[in-house]
Design a protein that fits this description.
Layout (H helix, E strand, L loop, with lengths): L15 H6 L3 E8 L4 H13 L2 E7 L8 H7 L2 H4 L1 E5 L2 H10 L3 E5 L6 E2 L11 E6 L7 H5 L3 E4 L11 H17 L2
Parallel strand pairs: 1-2, 1-6, 2-3, 4-6, 4-7, 5-7
Amino acid sequence: MQYRKLKNEELDRLSVEEFKDVNKIPISIILDNVRSTNNIGSVFRTVDAFLFKKIYLCGVCATPPDKGIRKTALGATKSVDWEYVENTSTLIKKLKAEGVKILSVEQAEQAVMLDKFQPEKDAEYAVVFGNEVKGVQQEVVSGSDKVIEIPQLGTKHSLNIAVSAGVVCWDLFSKLQNS
């Protein structure tokens, strides 16, 4: 079999306007004090790729049109809805009051391994990813409905935030598509 790479125009992607109008998967991403603009931009691309609802940028997160975000987002800041909220704990309390289930991605007591977590088909979720060094704030972890952990077997005890977001978003997307 011969494989030929597809050209961008052959990928049948949505336009920005179509993306804005299409029904989204009911998952938002919360970035809790993520410092790296490259990580933030990468998460924008991931949210765009999986047709998730929104990104919340909290605390020290930079916001578009920051050039570091723009460099890695490759235009996803135009398609993905986003909002800056200063305090992550205030945001999760508000979202929970609206019926959104909060999932923090962290290594914590009683955490559910990602491969064992099954999202509810009709639920809306907000998934929290934390600071590159300190992770998700304890107050946010404590206020979460569940904590999920990415299984890791090697010597390191963490993954880059952009990698973690890619792994978790793909996992949730695929589980919801197959349910």
